[in-house]
Design a protein that fits this description.
This protein is mainly alpha-helical. It folds into three domains: 2-105, no CATH class; 113-345, no CATH class; 346-406, no CATH class. The chain is built from 19 helices and three strands. The chain has a three-stranded mixed β-sheet, sandwiched between helices. α16 (349-359) crosses α18. The radius of gyration is 25 Å and the shape is globular.
């Protein structure tokens, strides 16, 4: 059976080598016009990363072919083939993930909007990372179904174990393309990891909880998501809050549920914390109506569950938590508070109204304003909550027109 086994092994190897050749055709994974929608540096960095993994896989196949032809033991060659197959599937997962993300840009209009969101994502990371002397990773924003956004951080090891993720790949849900401020939550996940804020913040949150039984550990476990919400607030003010509330609302039992191991705070505390951030920095505003509606829907006062007890205890701490997150100095920020890098006052309703008055008709057309103040323009364009579909559609068209024009502009880099 040795000759038959060797022929079979040759055939199996030929199959996987053929699959590797096919995988290397990146323009078949996502069409050329979709790749062209990426900023040049992002496209080259991403394709180089994928090509490098595929080249290593191809070399592994060539080495195995040489070993098989030279008469190496069949058992050894078969073990190598199984490893090659496993490596192929891992590389394929990486290629398909990025290919699917890029392929969303085949439609020119959506591609231009997503390219604009790439720029917004990088701009938001620049705010914190550049003053701290940290490299700012490129961002690839892609739409997907569902409720919540997500990020595959730059710098983490991918499925293929062939290197680190070359970009921050940010999922924005299709329904929130009309209000895409969730990308600021996801970019904060990226920069807060790079500067080491999460662990430090977790200790501060636990300290604010004091001796409330069990609450300190819960707050510490939620630090990453709290940080991301705070970062989005610092970049865009009130604007991310209604979008968040739309996503995390649900039945009362669900919005109070404390899930062990879940890094997200219960929706009730999360929304009211975001409202408290607005009150802490801006005073009264539209966020008060949102808080009143949530209290009417989900008031924990009459509930006797452990989750409701956590809600009541946590609610009492919200002013102290909001102040600690935004006003307390952190070593992650070089001994400064967050507002020294990302000042929420710049995106207060009053300051955004002032920006609108000063810009006038040039708000959506000024290249200088788009490149010097993109985050505030985004906040201004998403700062209201239309009450009818026609107004929502008009606001979306205005936002997308601006994003599509923002996209081709050169990205600044601090010295």
């Amino acid at each position: 059976m040795t000759d038959a086994e060797r022929r079979q092994l040759h055939a199996e190897l030929a199959h996987w080598q053929g699959a590797i050749v096919q995988l290397a055709e990146l323009d078949a994974v996502a069409p050329t016009e979709a790749w062209a929608q990426l900023e040049d540096y992002l496209r080259l960095r991403l394709r180089d990363r994928l090509t490098s993994s595929i080249a290593a896989l191809s070399a592994e196949g060539t080495t195995l072919a040489t070993a098989l032809a030279s008469g190496r033991p069949l058992g050894e060659c078969r073990a190598s083939l199984l490893r090659l197959r496993a490596r192929y599937l891992a590389v394929e997962s990486t290629v398909e993930f990025y290919g699917d993300a890029v392929q969303q840009r085949t439609t020119p209009r959506l591609g231009a909007v997503l390219r604009g969101l790439d720029t917004i994502a990088v701009d938001s990371m620049e705010v914190v990372l550049r003053p701290l002397g940290k490299e700012v990773p490129p961002a690839l924003v892609y739409p997907e179904k569902g409720l919540g956004a997500a990020v595959l951080r730059a710098g983490i090891r991918l499925w293929d174990q062939g290197g680190l993720s070359p970009v921050a790949a940010i999922k924005v849900t299709r329904h929130n393309l009309i209000h895409p401020t969730a990308i600021l939550h996801e970019t904060t996940h990226q920069w807060s990891h790079l500067v080491g804020w999460n662990t430090e913040l977790g200790e501060v949150l636990a300290e604010v909880a004091g001796d409330v039984p069990g609450l300190g550990e819960l707050l510490r476990s939620w630090a990453g998501e709290v940080a991301a919400d705070v970062g989005a607030f610092a970049m865009a003010g009130w604007s991310p809050v209604p979008a968040l509330a739309n996503v995390v609302d649900g039945p009362t039992a669900s919005v109070h549920r404390v899930r062990l191991g879940d890094p997200h705070p219960p929706s009730w505390l999360r929304v009211l914390f975001n409202v408290e951030l607005c009150r802490s920095w801006f005073g009264a505003g539209p966020w008060d109506d949102l808080a009143a509606a949530w209290r009417s829907r989900h008031d924990p006062a009459g509930l006797t569950t452990h989750d409701a007890a956590v809600a009541r205890a946590g609610e009492r701490l919200l002013p102290a938590l909001a102040s600690a997150c935004t006003r307390r100095p952190f070593q992650a920020f070089g001994g400064r508070p967050l507002h020294a890098l990302a000042d929420p006052e710049r995106v207060s309703p009053a300051r955004l109204a002032e920006l609108s008055r000063q810009a006038g008709d040039t708000l959506l057309t000024s290249a200088f304003l788009a490149r010097s103040d993109s985050l505030r323009v985004l906040a201004l364009l998403t700062n209201d909550q239309p009450l009818d579909p026609a107004a929502t559609a008009a606001r979306t068209a205005r936002l997308h027109d601006w994003l599509a024009r923002l996209a081709p502009m050169p990205l600044p880099r601090a010295a």
